[in-house]
Amino acid sequence: MTDGSPRLDELNDRSREVFRRLVEAYLESGDPVGSRTLTRTLSEKVSAATIRNVMQDLEYLGLLNSPHVSAGRIPTELGLRMFVDGFLEVGDLTDGDRDKIQETLGSNSADVPALMSSVGKALSGITSGASLVLTPKSEAPIKHIEFVSLGVDRALTVLVFADGQVENRLFTPPKGHTPSSMREAANFLNSLAEGRTLSELREVILREVEKRRREVDEVARALVESGLAVWNKDGAGTDRLIVQGRANLITDPADEAELHRIKSLFDDLERKQDIAEFLELAEDGEGVRIFIGSENKLFSLSGSSLVVSPYMNADRKIVGAVGVIGPTRLNYGRIVPIVDYTAQLVGKLISDRG
């Protein structure tokens, strides 16, 4: 809770129960909750008028909001944060959800990006939200590098790693490149790359390009530097972030405001040249973290919530994260154990592969 915000211990027992029941009803239905609905659920038998007075007090504290003059109340972002911190009961993972996640991660595929994409699809399907999976940077030694021209302004970098992984990455080559300049650049890189990781290769190349400027023609050197930039941006570029299930966030295709909100959310994501922020959201501590509405630094204008958890390698180093985006009325009690379990299994998978 932020400074000056109401605290849970400042509410009396009746206010706490009204607040908890109202938020639970809202998260289940997505609709404003009225006093008459609450009279049927409270442990204490009180009148609808008494409940309305309590709701007015909670609204004054900034915990509830009334979307329409005559309608019931819904929790504000502040109210949802208080509920998540003080009342949220995290359920156990169901056998069905556990089986679906294990089935996805049971593959023996050596293609880690493809496996992570399957993880994202499973998360999206199970939660009916959009999933985010930040894949780990490959730190395996490089075995071979090749450049493939796809046109005047498009080329492909093929990276073959010593552990058998193969990654294909698109980049924009410098003007004037030729097949011979691409071969020359690849030969230059391969003479330095074997046995080194991408991070190590970057440092060596920067030194070697400077030292051997006269040995590598201008176009080939620019190609090397262009390709290097694609591989080694902080966070390794947006190709590390896999997004699945965008359509799940659109509950009413006829609602232009909602369509605009969802479009803005993903436009914001796709504009991110550096996705370190996503990992930063998960790195402040082990386990699952919940970001509600404007608390979410990635999608502060989306009106959405993000449930995210980091995963670790065998050295207990955080190397990636998995998460689910949905409306602020997410079923947090169900989503949290799903994200947590998925992160643990992904971490084990990464650790087992060295």
UniProtKB/TrEMBL annotation:
One of its GO terms (biological process) is negative regulation of DNA-templated transcription. Residues 115-336 form the Heat-inducible transcription repressor HrcA C-terminal domain. PANTHER family: HEAT-INDUCIBLE TRANSCRIPTION REPRESSOR HRCA. Negative regulator of class I heat shock genes (grpE-dnaK-dnaJ and groELS operons). Prevents heat-shock induction of these operons. It comes from the Bacteria. The keyword Transcription applies. It comes from Maritimibacter alkaliphilus HTCC2654. Pfam families: HrcA (PF01628), WHD_HrcA (PF03444). GO terms for molecular function: DNA binding. Belongs to the HrcA family. This is Heat-inducible transcription repressor HrcA. Keywords: Repressor, Stress response, Transcription, Transcription regulation. The keyword Transcription regulation applies. Transmembrane segments: none annotated. Residues 11-76 form the Winged helix-turn-helix transcription repressor HrcA DNA-binding domain. The lineage of its organism: Bacteria, Pseudomonadati, Pseudomonadota, Alphaproteobacteria, Rhodobacterales. The gene is hrcA.
